[in-house]
Structure formats: structure tokens, C-alpha cells
């Protein structure tokens, strides 16, 4: 049997993940992160797998992970099923059969679900969707970061694309970071369709709309200009090509809202392009 890139990644990463210290009471809060999760082909990309895994190793292994993914737009605000080994959502098409056979049997996340519910404002109930598991915006990057599937994980739906309302939702999740939970906004810094790279499967230079949007976002993040980022629809170069639909950018506002200082120092952890799209990922304290 031929070994895949994912097989080789797990052979090297599993022992290191098993030895990773876990977050304990008294440890510093975990960061708030935004990651570009790509598509299932991320699991065939040795560099990207390594980048995500090495990022995970820079922090203690969390008590649990909360993911707001581009691929679950749902109101009212909901969470995925907290039961152990919840089936995955294979929300993609046209890939090899092996991608639809991958599993990621996470532990029971009921405690995390209860904490998320407690964080919600009094006038907003939290719906539990017992029929929904983790979509690829969650399980693909988590499989790279925590290959043992030993961290409870839940998704929170994205009920709106309003930057202000998403910032507010992030603020309600902020306390979880101080309790050892990792809060992730999962999207893709540029997600334009179609591009020559995506259509042809090539690795030529990214198109200007992707480069220009990425540079704009990087500069505003460095400046702590949350208001400027909120005006991405009208102010960002490369629009609307960089985000014909906005669901892969707006999880960034969850990340900002969940940070102790949304206008604070951003640590960029992943840069570069995949099929012409920006992989930029970052964290804030």
C-alpha cells in the first residue's frame, strides 16, 4: 500500500503530539486564532500540514477547541453535536474516495458545549444540532494540528456576516481562552473563484486580486485597524474577486472579538499561497 502525505505526517507527528503538555489551570490564556483551512487537498500538502502542526506545538494542548467555520452559516447560533465520535461532514465534491473515508473521532465535548452556552447573552439561546458533526473547515486543520483526535471539538455556527455582530459573538467566547480552550475562526484569507490556478491546478504566480487583498489585510492587521478591516467589501483592493462571497473572510472577526485586545499585536503563523489563494493565518493574545 502506498503511503500518502497524511500517513507520513502522522507517523512523524503522533509521538510529538502525544508528548505535548496539556493546558493546566494557572497557565496563560490560549490565543485567539484565524486559520486558512484550504480544502481536503491540504492533507496532501506536506508543508501546510507541518505549518499547522508546528503552530499547535507552540502552545499547550487545549482542553477543547471551538471553531467558527466558513462552512456553517446558520441562525440562530448553534453548536454541533457534543457526543464522542460524532460523524464528520464531507462537505466537498470531486475529490478522491479516500477523502470521504477519513475519520476524526474526537472525545465527548459536553463540558465545552455547556461552557459555550453559559457564555451566550441572556437574550440569545444556543441551539444544539444533534445531527451535525464537524465540517471540513474544522476537521481538516484539526487533523493536521492534533492528529491523535484527543481534543474535544465543537463548532459554533456563523449566524451573520456583520463584522460588528461577529465581533460581539467573539467577545462572548473570549473567556473560554482563559479556561484553556482554543478559539478558531476558520476561513481562507482569499477565496476567489474562479482563478487560473484553481481551474488548471497549477502553481503559477497568484493573480493580482489575491496578492493585493492579502497585502491590504496584512497591513491593517499589523496596524490594529479593526474598523478598516470591517470595510473590506468597499475598501479592500481585489474585491469582489478575492471574496465573491464573504464567508471565508468573516470568521476573522470572531478571532478579533475573542482576543483580549482586538487591536493588539498580530503574530502571523502561516503565509504564502495555495492554488493562488492566500494561506495567511495568525493569532492574537
Description:
This protein has a six-stranded mixed beta sheet with strand order 5-2-6-1-10-7, with helices on both faces. The model has no long low-confidence stretch (mean pLDDT 94). It starts with a helix and ends with a strand. It is α/β, with parallel strands linked by helices and 285 residues long. It contains ten helices and ten strands.
Summary tags:
alpha/beta, 285 residues, two-stranded parallel sheet
Taken in chain order, the helices and strands follow as HEHEEHEHEHEHHHHHEEEE
Number of alpha- plus pi-helical segments: 10
Spatial sequence of strands, sheet with the most strands = 5-2-6-1-10-7
Largest sheet: 6 strands, mixed
The helical percent reads 25-40%
Quote the beta fraction. 5-15%
Low-confidence stretches: none
Q: What is the subunit arrangement here? A: single chain
Ends distance = 44 Å
How many DSSP E strands? 10
Class of secondary structure makeup: alpha/beta
Mean pLDDT: 94
Q: What Rg do the Cα atoms give?
A: 18 Å
Question: What best-fitting shape do the alpha-carbon axes yield?
Answer: globular
Family: Belongs to the DODA-type extradiol aromatic ring-opening dioxygenase family.
Domain Extradiol ring-cleavage dioxygenase class III enzyme subunit B: 50-267
GO molecular function, one term: dioxygenase activity
Keywords: Dioxygenase, Metal-binding, Oxidoreductase, Zinc
